[in-house]
Amino acid sequence: MTVAERLRAVHARIAAAAAAASRAPSSVRLVAVSKTKPASMIREAYAAGQRDFGENYVQELEAKAVDLSDLPGLCFHAIGHLQRNKVKVVIRRAGVLHTLDSVRLIREVAERAAQLPAAQRPAGVAPDGRYRVLLEVNVGGEAQKSGCAPADLGELIAEVERSDALVLSGLMTVPPHTDAPAGARPYFDRLVQLRDQHGGAARLPELSMGMTQDLEQAIASGATLVRVGSAIFGERER
Ligand SMILES: *Cc1c(COP(=O)(O)O)cnc(C)c1O
Fold first, then answer.
1. Which residues does 32 contact at the CB level (< 8 Å), separation at least 6?
2. Mean pLDDT across the stretch 208-223?
3. Which residues line ligand 1 (CB under 6 A)?
4. What is the pLDDT of residue 238?
5. Closest CA to 113 of 104, 103, 125, 102
6. Which residue's alpha carbon is at the smallest distance from atom 5 of ligand 1?
7. What is the pTM of this model?
């Protein structure tokens, strides 16, 4: 199958899952996760109408953004664990940041973003030039995983709202691995519950959750951004 055909199949899955949850298909946006895949595949997806792409690794993001700079409206989402010493590079390339999980990291992003002239900010920032940010929550409480503890969420939300350079988009999670897709559902529901405890959709409109294996579960719970890689670009090398 071509990338365009795979994209169509993923959109059909999204539409079916949305319909099953009595939601409008347009309430779910697809972020095509292109990590480890060549820029040429991003071009194929772009030609098929895809605009939002997720990248995990900073050097790879940088190289692809340069390679693809001729494509207007191409928007990179930074979805990998973000180190403070990489923030400066990342915000030149990604307008949406999914993985803020500490006060120190939020402060670094806010400071660096404020220093970057609006004309140099990438596609995907809000119309007023602010970076869209999501807070990553470690809903499974896994020791080795990034993401903040649910108990820290209030403090992190307040920190984002203090910055003139950032706009709070919502919450993101990567649930613990389970063999059956349904195993992720309680973790997705937990993220929804946390959103409701912290001001609901008015304050935290986006929920970034769901991948190739479990996007249906995530949409049933209320995902507005699904991050899908292998269903679009094929399996990755390990
Ligand atoms: C790789 C990755 C995805 C996509 O995973 P697939 O199973 O290939 O759809 C989504 N989110 C994050 C944070 C990832 O690292």
1. 7, 42, 45, 50, 52, 53, 54, 228, 229, 232, 233
2. 98
3. 33, 35, 56, 79, 174, 211-213, 227-230
4. 72
5. 125
6. 229
7. 0.97
